[in-house]
Write a structure and sequence with these properties.
Layout: H1 5-21, H2 25-57, H3 65-92, H4 95-104, H5 113-140
């Protein structure tokens, strides 16, 4: 009998939870720290660029709460997938972590390094335009 899409997604999630639980505690703690650092670092850079662009377009205008909010939310939406890509790349540069991760994710659909990177690239292609629209709205706001 063929598994439904929802059942397949649940099975994949369960496999990821089991794989994550097998990680050594130090790596399980390091991964989110690296990921969040990359995401918030990129968010800061993109938001700063958005503020500078707003100042260039509207040199006499002050940054309003609306402009700051739209810029930061747009920057965060844009930064999520590239931040995770960067975090995966950084962790993949350390051979023992890469070997441990590859061994741990064997048999888990979408979890091995190259599959995860491909999925994150697809997510970036969807999220980046949404965040860019918010930033364009923010920079065009007087």
């Amino acid at each position: 009998m063929k598994m439904s899409k929802l059942s397949s997604l649940r099975a994949d999630m369960a496999a990821r939870v089991v794989a994550r639980a097998r990680l050594p505690r130090w790596l399980a703690l390091l991964m989110p720290v690296i990921a969040l650092t990359c995401i918030f670092g990129l968010t800061t850079i993109i938001a700063w660029a958005s503020f500078r662009l707003h100042q260039t377009v509207h040199p006499r205008a002050q940054l309003s709460d609306r402009v700051v909010g739209l810029s930061v939310i747009g920057a965060l939406i844009i930064a999520v997938a590239p931040g995770l890509l960067l975090g995966n790349y950084i962790l993949g540069l350390v051979p023992p972590i890469r070997k441990l991760s590859d061994r741990n994710t064997k048999g888990v659909r979408g979890a091995p390094f190259h599959e995860a990177m491909r999925g994150l690239l697809k997510a970036a292609c969807i999220l980046a335009p949404v965040g860019a629209i918010l930033i364009v709205l923010a920079t065009s706001w007087p």
